[in-house]
Task: inverse folding
């Protein structure tokens, strides 16, 4: 990661490694509506549980 912003000079140390990744999520309402009742909540629970495990 570059330590220098082309327009403003050096970045403060706390910002040099601040972002590790970024995720963009697109939800198709018709696909979500097609899920059986409770399926979305079950899948989201598993996803957030896995994210918590990755954080440690």
Result:
């Amino acid at each position: 990661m570059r330590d220098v912003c082309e327009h403003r000079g050096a970045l403060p140390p706390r910002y040099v490694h601040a972002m590790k990744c970024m995720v963009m999520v697109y939800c198709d309402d018709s696909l979500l509506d097609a899920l059986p009742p409770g399926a979305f909540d079950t899948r989201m629970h598993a996803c957030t549980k896995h994210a918590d495990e990755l954080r440690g």
Q: What stands out?
A: The beta strands are 4-5, 9-10. The chain is about 50% helix and 5% strand. Confidence is low (pLDDT under 50) at residues 1-5. Residues 4-55 form one domain.
